[in-house]
């Protein structure tokens, strides 16, 4: 038997059903016996939603009012009544089992399952399989319209069914017409057999992913804005009703190995992926989640692995993974098992533990643990920040993809303590930021937030040869993230004009990019925090007037950058200060790279780095004091960076939204240092970059 169902929400109708997160307000259904071609009574139930604010489209089509819905039963009781009435109708027809039949996928996948998941309702097994009438109709009548273009009305018109939509109540006409369509499909000329229903996965399955796998890019999305503590199960719950591939949730980590609020999700087919994209800006708790297209290559980069040790660890399926962070470096397997205790036994004992180590075998303080059930995992999480040895241990939910990411990162990153010796000084090549009025620069606006230097150079095409060395500059927002803007210094104003004409509104990934010609002065203002709009230039935010753009310390001699240098994370680089009167005499900043450099690494980052305010700044390894003195004696005499010891202070624990004004206000009333050493240094955890700022910002 089939139970033909039609449901409506308080919001959008048709192709956008469920895309606005609105609740169910109407259920209409009728039981159909396929063998005897008999039908039971038609039932219609109103549902009292938590939010009774109906959309204009809903009011017009359904004729329902908030006053009428206020007297209805809530969804959980209506679903109970649904099950009871269907059971009684089946007894009348002499049947015992049934399957739902709906008009398309949206009713079940995008409306029912997401709403019941948010309200913590447990659905019976009958709601995890259904027939899609549109697909069945297209199978029976291949010459009809494509599945995505089908509606109840078009299917009825194709069969020549003379039903008048205005004669019946909203929902009743839809169910009666669907039943008539089914009977037509059961006729001798068609003899359609309903044998392969659509299924909804009731549980997300974990599992490993190998880099050798082939992942279809049409099945992957990127979710952004996730709570940092969310797990793969939380993400699967957000996409409830859609079928995620086994091991298809990969949480992304930042440079410090912590979750960055993004995840890549792989679905079983492109149809499920397209439905997932309709959940853009749906809510997980109080946060809205952005959903975008992604590629299979991006998914494999995050979730794929090649380590046999990891593959063996993750071979035990349907296990709950917990990550332990902050373990003593001397901790053993017995210590970890003793810390967890008998109330949360580890799957396989010692085999259920995976310690994360550096390439030389030293422990990192991280480990992953497998538990066979949710209860044991919950008991383990209760030990969050308990003491092992002399350290408190952090415990978090984890995923198979996170295991792969952490192991890949630690096993592939060179370590400074294991660098070959000796080390030699290398002076980076000179670069300057133009400040003149010549319009030899271009501004790129509307870049994808994931775009990097390589993407920009590919976007520029043949014009890349006309870029000045170190002439690509990314612009960050106040949170330190890419703003979608970039500036490029060209070799001449004519070259800048040609690039602006050729590349304006050219596509980069999924977005078109605007390209405008501008001057070095305009570029400098924006890089230092100002704005450039139709009204002209607005200087960087500052408490004091007369702001002038700062100048960067220029390096005097060029040098070769070895291959190893491109692999290291940026360290703090402190350029010597310079004043407008003595800029030409600024001494070189000594930086160091490993001595073992047999071949050159010709990467774009080395030749076109952004200024120190950019996330793509070339990293430098700070030299030991003795080496600095030796290099200084061999090259030039250095001027002291600070006038006296202790003149520079470092601030830790600043709120993330702290600006220049708050820091100035914090130091109000203190004695400022001499003018030649005015400056503000801002440090970030990921890349400690030093920005020599204008004198008017702060005096230390």
What report would you give on this structure?
Helix content is 26%, strand content 22%. The longest helix is centred in the N-terminal third of the chain and has 19 residues, at 75-93. It has 20 helices and 27 strands. The strands form seven sheets. The chain has a six-stranded mixed sheet with strand order 3-2-1-4-5-6, with helices on both faces. A five-stranded antiparallel sheet has the order 9-10-8-12-11, with helices on both faces. Among the domains are: 2-199, Ribonuclease H-like superfamily/Ribonuclease H (Nucleotidyltransferase, domain 5, 2-Layer Sandwich); 217-303, Alpha-Beta Plaits (2-Layer Sandwich); 312-411, RRM (RNA recognition motif) domain (Alpha-Beta Plaits); 441-528, RRM (RNA recognition motif) domain (Alpha-Beta Plaits, 2-Layer Sandwich), CATH 3.30.70. The chain is an alpha+beta fold and 700 residues long. Helix 6 crosses helix 7 (172-185). The N and C termini lie far apart (81 Å). It is globular.
Secondary structure blueprint with pairings:
Elements: E1 2-9, E2 24-33, E3 38-46, H1 56-62, H2 66-69, H3 75-93, E4 99-102, H4 106-118, E5 129-132, H5 133-140, H6 152-159, H7 172-185, E6 198-199, E7 209-210, E8 220-224, H8 232-238, E9 244-253, E10 259-267, H9 270-277, E11 282-284, E12 287-293, H10 296-303, E13 304-305, H11 308-313, E14 320-325, H12 333-340, E15 353-357, E16 363-371, H13 374-381, E17 386-388, E18 391-398, H14 400-412, E19 423-426, E20 441-445, H15 453-460, E21 467-476, E22 482-490, H16 493-503, E23 506-508, E24 511-518, H17 520-527, E25 531-533, E26 536-538, E27 591-594, H18 604-607, H19 625-635, H20 660-666
Parallel strand pairs: 1-4, 4-5, 7-13
Antiparallel strand pairs: 1-2, 2-3, 5-6, 8-10, 8-12, 9-10, 11-12, 14-16, 14-18, 15-16, 17-18, 19-27, 20-22, 20-24, 21-22, 23-24, 25-26
